[in-house]
Amino acid sequence: MTRRFIAACLQMRSGRDPLVNRDAAVTLAREAAAQGASFVQTPEMTSLVERERSALFAKVGPQETDATVNALREVARERRIVVQIGSVAVAEGDRIANRAILIDAEGEVVATYDKIHLFDVDLPNGERWRESATYAGGNEATLVETPWGWLGLTICYDVRFPALYRALAKAGASFLSAPACFTKQTGEAHWHILHRARAIETGAFMISAAQGGLHEDGRETYGHSIIVDPWGRVLAEGGTEPGVILAEIDPALVGEARARIPALRHGRPFEVVRAALSEDAPRAATA
Predict the structure, then answer these.
(1) 20 to 30 A Cα–Cα from 187, which one of 28, 218, 279, 285?
(2) Are 41 and 151 a contacting pair, CB within 8 Å?
């Protein structure tokens, strides 16, 4: 039987200085390890939250030389923990990859994932986001083996696309993650229900670290880093301030939830057909 372990989400408020953000992530990762965590996850855009395009490109380089990646590789090696960097911005030609990175307890990068779904929306409060103008979307889902089972890597806006999570779960994922930089407005409306829904639908744990609070570039993020069990129960949750949240993860709960509700096995192929009322059909009376 796979052993239990302590998972930690590092809630951050990353700003415009990558080295300051690096130091904050390292401090929180060491704090989580000191509290017994063997799996530590940082939020989306750990190393830099910068909405001004030219400033973003000036501060971003290759993954191999990224200061935050290399510092967290050292922490993983030093503390013998698995570290999931929720994402860092990585230079990819004339665009940037929003990349998740999984580091093993030897400090080696064993898997990466580039965010598939890009956040291009106009919000009712006037906020306008066009990630596709700056970021290159990925086209491959990533599943990585950990000492406790398979982990599916996703990022932020991906959480609104349940087919991705179902595919990862059917491929073997017991743990799913959507580390985020969720806006305050959308987070207040949907963060909790989306995470609980993805956990329930797949019978998997959802583990998602988040950015929270008012950032240097003016954006405000929701925070509320969250860990949800396969039955949809919230095991741990943050607020809006930086810090560490922890929960004990029992991988056996995955099998139990999937045995009780075997939805992953019950999916069937289907076609969508269209039907329409004829123009002669009776209609409701109007005043």
Answers:
(1) 28
(2) no
